[in-house]
Each structure stands twice: as C-alpha cells, then as structure tokens.
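Board notes (copied after class):
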Amino acid sequence: MITTVIFDLDDTLYNEIDYCMSGLRAVAAYLHKTNQNIPAEQIYRALWNQFQKGNRTEIFNAALEELYIDYDEQFIKELVQVYRNHKPDIKLPEESLQILEKLKSLYTLALLSDGFLPAQKLKVQVLGIEKYFKKIIYTEQFGRQFWKPSTKGFEKLIKELNIKAQQAVYVSDNPAKDFIAPNKLGIVSIQLKNTLGVHKNTPQIPEARPKHIINRLNELEDLLQKL
C-alpha cells in the first residue's frame, strides 16, 4: 500500500525553464549596472540565445564575448553566484497546487531535490510549498557526490519517515538519472513527461527506466489509487 509520495522539484512541480529565464534576467541586470551603454534587454537576449543553443557550461563566457564585455575567471564566478542566489521570479502552476492540495490529506508528502542549496531553498520559499511536505531533502546538504543517482537522500527519507521503500513513490522528470536510486531501493518510480522540461530530450538508460509514466500531474491521483 502506498502511503508516501516523494516529489522532485525542478520540472516536476514547476517548469525549470522559468527559473532559468529569471536567473538570466538577474545576470543581465547585474551586467547592465557596469555596462550601462548596453541595454539590459540586449544582454538578456545574448544570454538567452546561448541557452537556446544548448550552451550550459560556458553561457556567460560566450554571451560576454558576443557583447564585447571583458571578463576573467573571477568575474564569471561572480555571475554564477548572481544566478544561483537571485530571488527567482517563478510561480507554482495551478495544476501543481491542486495535486498537492488533493494529496496532502491522503498521503505523507516529501520533497527530494538536487541542486545548489541556496537556490533550491529560495525556489521552495518563493513557490510557497514547504507547508505541504513532512520532510524535505536537499541532497546538496550531503555533498554533490550524493546528488542523484545516489541512494543516500532516499534512504534518509525512508528512515526519517519510518516507512518501507515499497510504500513510497517518487515523481520526477529526468529519465537519465532520477529513477536509478528509487528502482534500486524498491520505491515505485513515476516519470512526469514534461514537454517544456530542460531534460525532455535526455536519453534514457535501462536502469533509469521508470515503472510508470504520466503526461500531466493531474493523472497522479488516479495512478496512486491503482497502486
């Protein structure tokens, strides 16, 4: 019998693309302060174009070069911190709010999320969802080596909630890594196919194959009743 629903955060309860856009706008505003001859919107467009090209590792470098703004390694680190520490302009979708409201009286709800700790905490705060979860695990608290596909966060949840793995489901989006640990532990894995997701084109590997797939969060309640 399923008693516990564990949610991922990014691209599961809200669209991560909204966070990315918000972060790039924060970086654009920061750069405009010291480069006032370049409009903030122009800086944002350069950043966004790099993002759309799939540049995730040197997005700031490439955009600054396009804009003829001098930089060094330390300046790039500053921009990374601006991105990670900005207060995000994101909202909880109505569908996510509805499913959390429906499930909170039927199941124990928990949240397990990778990502840089200050950023993840700010997301939860702005979305106003902390009140729904009996336990929140930010895997960054253990060290980046314990991000998914590590089992550590899931094992801690099982222990602290005093449940068996088979009593829980994990709802997430990334087909490359999110379901490896739940599958190993016996937690029922459920993939949300987010058509707007950052990882929507990520190839799946056999050990990461979810037990179930849903296309919308509003399908989750019926699936849980069947389980």
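Comment from the instructor: The longest strand covers residues 108-113. The chain has a mean pLDDT of 94.
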